[in-house]
């Protein structure tokens, strides 16, 4: 769709020619060297990319979770005996679009973006209808559309090569991992929560409660919190939402099938000290219930009040099966499992009381789970699917009652699933009242896109302090970026994945449990009855048994994992303290893990031949895992590991080694050169600003019609790079330019963080960018045969804007490309029928249409870049017009280096007036030296020196944190290049020609232009619109609002005694209103139009009426008081004579 550039081949050759990179000489003689270790990181990124967790999770949802949800509700039973529907296999098709004429064709993401479609695939469910227990109909039924994640296995782009992607107008470097809903790209942000199905122990929060255990149980579509409390009197209670009151724990245990006190005690512990603590609870509950039925009746009396005993017992069984610990199952067979879970929680509470167990650290990564896109969509789909099947059941019963046997296709309303899921993804409003789950994908630049796809959000309240939750926890090392988090109320609650961090999808728990029993774990009840001694074995937080040789068990499982005999997602940890001895096995989804090199008997398992195979392409990352060279550890297993940072350390005492230390950073923070030399807040600021910098967001920007976007005209690769940039695609999509930066106070226009820019550099194109805005409209059809028309409106239409506004329109009513347009001018001419056609029909000629043309925003101008005329799938005409505006840097535009040193342009100085060096070099940017001492951004000084060396030597310099070219190496290179070792030079004033008295630090620093530009923020108003209710000026730039003179400004004017100014601002220039008041009663008079004078509502003609000027808001307040039955009287002063009407 574009003309091939004749220089394309030459450019491609240049692009593929590697620019030499100067690396530090450290760690060159050891194995693995820095280069060899980074080859491992490169293999990880090559195999899965940076959004692998999103793609894997969605693929898992479609391949496994969809069928599981269907299987949960596999039979739809009705009130009629023998009449039911069996649900079998669910299938997902390929994304396609159904047009208004009922034709269908394959849909690709770019078409969905341009035509405002949802990129979704059809869902087909095989259903069988049974009447009198005999199958009468079996069909594969279309049940709705499921939005498909771009670049997932079910996307039409999956498996396409670079050239094929380009032919589909896709950016080959786009990571995918998002959805397209109504033409907008939306990302489901990963949610961080406490681990479900795992008990947490803590101290009681009330005086009467000493200790508590809580478990959040999620299963079969239900989520309940079960709490076990130990009260001061020693009695232990169980609380869960289905029952309003506390229930002594022995009653719950009996109701779950443990009849005797001995069974109950053994389900808790075989330790005499713990058993003694159970006595108060057992004695108390003996008075209430002694048998299984008594216990069920006791629970039933709380939920089925006033019902017969057998109803109460049945109701209690239902509650315990369905709503009590649903993650263990919802059938009768799992009741003993549930009893054992309660026993485990009771034991933990008593251990805390006895001082044997410490409260759990809820901020430990091992106690957190990240809910990915697959879990969140599964939660949504489960709810919607149940509603659809409920609807199917009602339809079936209705048809059958009329003596008809319906076709399965007619029973299913496919639009329910399609619309509910689309609406949730389009708004971000999820099941359970959560908001902001899906968000518009940030396309400012490649870093903002990657960051958005790798974000992890905590659900804690933003308004409360939560100091511990916001802190950087030591276990987050290597899993969550230590730098990238916002400032303000989201600080520490919004986090990002570290570079090598992965999130587990989950392994079948039953298979792992069977494997553990095969390896000698004795089931818990059997072990307690037989008195087996050893370590307690927990699987996903649930106590399953005892093992006599825990160290052997742990080493066998680890060895099996390293050999590839079991899933690498299984993690095992041995937790030991004075009183505790536990083996914890985890195989659930949502655990944050990181890869580490394995050390065996003081030696790395990684060998030079492995690196060689990787580099040659004979091996991939998966081979390193399956051959036991690298393994992933979760937060709990890492408690058993001792990790070496560098290969030169003594390996004999370590179990693992870091692949590279700087992978503790995320995709954004890893672009900061020499980050370890900066004060931590500066790195945090840069991580935020890198996402606001303008660059090259997507290679297909010419064909995209995003609502707004920026493009830096001449983005450059930085001369000072980090290894992270080579992995996250930043070098192919840079967001700044290399500038010659001098540190000096020149003219004073760079005080307070302002920067001075070289006017001549700007004129040559430095920091120029283009701003794109897309305007769109649809030609709608309305009931009654009326429709919009895209045309040049005639002068008769209501709201006609005058002929000059429509001057740029062609005959079809749409502007042509490459036409200059400015604020208020029409881009798409459009007329619509009257809004309230039925109301207007009596008073207005029926043909009177209104102008609903699309105009350029006020204050904006530009050139029409492209026009797209297409159709929506409903058959409506859709027109999109993209306008581009050249943005040349001007005073007030914001710039920043890569070290959090942000500032606005304070002055542009022509090149001839800029200071210059002995070689005649003039800086592009002059920064105030006062920006450095207190902020301690030493990284910027090192980058400046490195940039200077890079420019002189014609190469790039590696400044990766912890392993970049050192200060000593840079000084040596500067001296060898004929410059001073400290980066300073003698400079001369461009204004006076004199030598500057100080030596000036000058070098090359990479600067970013941020999207905060004066052109988007400038705002002033003399007159303009007012609010209908208060008649005060509107608020905000977009509404042409006024500038608020607030409470504090009012107080200043009062303090200065500036009464006239105060009146002018708050009344005359705001909401001046003339009000008529009766002198007798102080009431507001009403205006009698017949007699042409105001009349008092109480005294009529006898009242003396005065005219006063007040703010309209005051008059509004008086009337609101009257509506409350309050009678406010206005007392008039002495000057009333001249105001009398």
UniProtKB/TrEMBL annotation:
Catalytic activity: RNA(n) + a ribonucleoside 5'-triphosphate = RNA(n+1) + diphosphate
EC category: transferase
Domain DNA-directed RNA polymerase subunit 2 hybrid-binding: 668-1039
The protein's Enzyme Commission number: 2.7.7.6
Protein name stated in the entry: DNA-directed RNA polymerase subunit beta
Principal cellular location given in the protein's record: cytoplasm
InterPro entries: DNA-dir_RNA_pol_su2, DNA-dir_RNAP_su2_dom, DNA-dir_RNAP_su2_hyb_sf, RNA_pol_bsu_CS, RNA_pol_bsu_protrusion, RNA_pol_Rpb2_2, RNA_pol_Rpb2_2_sf, RNA_pol_Rpb2_3
Family: Belongs to the RNA polymerase beta chain family.
Compartments where located: Cytoplasm
Organism: Vulcanisaeta souniana JCM 11219
Top-level taxon of origin: Archaea
Domain RNA polymerase beta subunit protrusion: 49-419
GO cellular component, one term: cytoplasm
PANTHER family registered for this protein in UniProt: DNA-DIRECTED RNA POLYMERASE I SUBUNIT 2 (PTHR20856)
Signal peptide: none
Entry function: DNA-dependent RNA polymerase catalyzes the transcription of DNA into RNA using the four ribonucleoside triphosphates as substrates.
PROSITE patterns: RNA_POL_BETA (PS01166)
Residue ranges constituting the RNA polymerase Rpb2 domain according to the UniProt record: 207-371, 439-503, 537-600, 621-650, 1041-1131
GO biological process, one term: DNA-templated transcription
Keywords in alphabetical order: Cytoplasm, DNA-binding, DNA-directed RNA polymerase, Metal-binding, Nucleotidyltransferase, Transcription, Transferase, Zinc
NCBIfam families, per database record: PRK08565.1, PRK09606.1, rpoB_arch
């Amino acid at each position: 769709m574009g003309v091939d550039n004749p220089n394309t081949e030459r450019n491609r050759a240049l692009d593929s020619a590697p620019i030499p990179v100067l690396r530090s000489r450290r760690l060159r003689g050891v194995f693995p060297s820095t280069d060899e270790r980074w080859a491992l990181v490169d293999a990880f990124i090559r195999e899965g990319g940076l959004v692998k967790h999103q793609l894997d999770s969605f693929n898992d949802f479609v391949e496994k979770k969809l069928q599981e949800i269907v299987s949960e509700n596999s039979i739809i039973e009705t009130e009629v005996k023998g009449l039911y529907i069996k649900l079998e296999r669910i299938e997902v098709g390929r994304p396609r679009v159904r047009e208004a004429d009922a034709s269908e064709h394959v849909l690709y993401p770019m078409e969905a973006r341009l035509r405002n479609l949802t990129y979704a695939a059809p869902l087909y469910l095989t259903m069988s209808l049974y009447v009198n227990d005999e199958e009468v109909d079996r069909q594969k039924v279309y049940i709705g559309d499921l939005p498909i994640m771009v670049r997932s296995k079910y996307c039409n782009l999956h498996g396409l090569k670079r050239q094929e992607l380009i032919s589909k107008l896709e950016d080959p470097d786009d990571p995918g991992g998002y959805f397209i809903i109504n033409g907008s790209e939306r990302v489901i942000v990963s949610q961080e929560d406490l681990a479900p199905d795992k008990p947490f122990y803590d101290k009681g929060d009330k005086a009467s409660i000493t200790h508590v255990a809580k478990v959040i149980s999620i299963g079969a579509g239900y989520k309940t919190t079960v709490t076990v409390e130990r009260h001061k009197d020693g009695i232990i209670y169980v609380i869960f939402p289905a029952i309003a009151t506390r229930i002594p724990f022995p009653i719950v245990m009996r109701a779950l099938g443990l009849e005797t006190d001995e069974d109950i005690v053994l389900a808790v512990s075989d330790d005499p000290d713990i058993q003694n603590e159970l006595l108060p609870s057992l004695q108390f509950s003996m008075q209430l219930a002694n048998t299984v039925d008594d216990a069920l009746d006791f629970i039933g009396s709380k939920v089925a009040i006033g019902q017969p005993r057998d109803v109460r017992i049945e109701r209690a069984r239902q509650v315990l099966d369905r709503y009590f610990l649903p993650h263990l199952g919802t059938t009768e067979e799992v009741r003993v499992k549930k009893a054992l879970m309660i026993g485990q929680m009771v034991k933990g509470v008593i251990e805390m009381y006895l001082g044997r167990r410490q409260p759990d650290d809820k901020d430990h990564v091992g106690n957190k789970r990240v809910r990915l896109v697959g879990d969140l969509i599964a939660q949504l789909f489960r709810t919607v699917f149940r509603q659809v099947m409920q609807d199917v059941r009602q339809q079936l019963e209705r048809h059958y009652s009329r003596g008809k046997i319906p076709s399965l296709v007619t029973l299913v309303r496919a639009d329910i699933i399609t619309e509910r899921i689309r609406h949730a993804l389009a708004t971000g409003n999820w099941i359970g009242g959560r908001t902001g789950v899906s968000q518009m994908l940030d396309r400012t630049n490649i870093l903002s896109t990657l960051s958005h796809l790798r974000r992890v959000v905590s659900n804690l309240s933003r308004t409360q302090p939560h100091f511990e939750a916001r802190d950087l926890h030591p276990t987050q090392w290597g899993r969550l970026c230590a730098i990238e988090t916002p400032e303000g109320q989201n600080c520490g609650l919004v986090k990002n994945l570290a570079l090598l961090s992965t999130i587990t999808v989950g392994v079948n728990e039953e298979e792992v449990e069977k494997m553990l029993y095969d390896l000698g774990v004795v089931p818990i009840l059997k072990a307690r009855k037989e008195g087996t001694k050893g370590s307690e074995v927990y699987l996903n937080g649930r106590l399953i048994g005892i093992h006599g040789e825990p160290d052997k068990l742990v080493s066998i499982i680890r060895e099996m994992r390293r050999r590839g005999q079991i899933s690498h997602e299984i993690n095992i940890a041995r937790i030991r303290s004075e009183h505790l001895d536990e083996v914890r096995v985890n195989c659930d989804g949502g655990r944050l893990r990181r890869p580490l090199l394995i050390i065996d008997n003081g030696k790395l398992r990684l060998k030079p031949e492995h690196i060689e195979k990787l580099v040659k392409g004979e091996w991939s990352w998966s081979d390193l895992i399956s051959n036991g060279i690298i393994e992933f550890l979760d937060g709990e297993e890492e408690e058993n590991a001792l990790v070496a940072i560098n290969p030169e350390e003594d390996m004999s005492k370590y179990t693992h080694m870091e692949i590279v230390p700087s992978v503790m950073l995320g995709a954004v923070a890893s672009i900061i050169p020499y980050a370890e030399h900066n004060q931590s807040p500066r790195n945090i600021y840069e991580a935020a600003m890198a996402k606001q910098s303008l660059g090259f967001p997507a290679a297909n920007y010419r064909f995209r019609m995003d609502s707004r976007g920026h493009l830096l005209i001449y983005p450059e690769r930085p001369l000072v790079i980090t290894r992270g940039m080579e992995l996250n695609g930043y070098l192919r999509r840079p967001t700044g330019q290399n500038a010659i930066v001098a540190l000096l106070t020149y003219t004073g226009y760079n005080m307070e963080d302002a920067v001075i820019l070289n006017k001549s550099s700007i004129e040559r194109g430095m920091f120029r960018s283009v701003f794109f805005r897309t305007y769109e409209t649809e030609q709608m059809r309305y009931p009654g045969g009326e429709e919009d028309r895209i045309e040049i409106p005639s002068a008769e239409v209501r709201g006609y804007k005058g002929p000059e506004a429509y001057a740029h329109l062609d005959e079809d009513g749409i502007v042509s490309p490459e036409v200059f347009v400015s604020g208020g001018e029409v881009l798409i001419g459009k007329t619509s029928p009257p809004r309230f056609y039925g109301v207007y029909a009596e008073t207005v000629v029926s043909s009177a249409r209104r102008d609903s043309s699309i105009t350029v925003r006020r204050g904006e101008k530009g050139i029409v870049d492209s026009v797209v005329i297409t159709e929506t799938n409903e058959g409506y005409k859709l027109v999109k017009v993209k306008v581009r505006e050249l943005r040349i840097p001007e005073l007030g535009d914001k710039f920043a280096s890569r070290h959090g040193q942000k500032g606005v342009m304070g002055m542009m100085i022509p090149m001839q007036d800029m200071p210059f060096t002995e070689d005649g070099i003039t800086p592009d940017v002059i920064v105030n030296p006062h920006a450095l001492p207190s902020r301690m951004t030493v990284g910027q000084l090192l980058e400046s020196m490195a940039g200077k060396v890079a420019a002189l030597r014609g190469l790039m310099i590696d400044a990766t944190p912890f392993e970049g070219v050192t200060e000593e190496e840079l000084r040596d290179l500067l001296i060898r290049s004929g410059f001073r070792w400290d980066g300073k030079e003698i400079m001369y004033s461009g204004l006076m020609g004199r030598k500057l008295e100080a030596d000036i630090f000058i070098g090359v620093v990479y600067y970013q232009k941020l999207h905060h530009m004066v052109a988007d923020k400038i705002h002033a108003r003399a007159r303009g619109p007012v609010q209908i209710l208060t008649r005060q000026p509107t608020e905000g730039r977009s509404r042409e609002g006024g500038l608020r003179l607030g409470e504090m400004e009012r107080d200043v004017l009062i303090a200065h005694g500036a009464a006239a100014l105060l009146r002018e601002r708050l009344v005359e220039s705001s909401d001046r209103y003339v009000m008529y008041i009766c002198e007798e009663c102080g009431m507001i008079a009403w205006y009698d139009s017949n007699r042409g004078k105001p009349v008092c509502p109480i005294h009529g003609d006898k009242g003396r009426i005065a005219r006063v000027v007040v703010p309209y808001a005051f008059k509004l307040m008086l009337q609101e008081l009257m509506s409350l039955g309050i009678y406010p009287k206005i007392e008039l002063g002495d000057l009333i004579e001249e105001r009398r009407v």
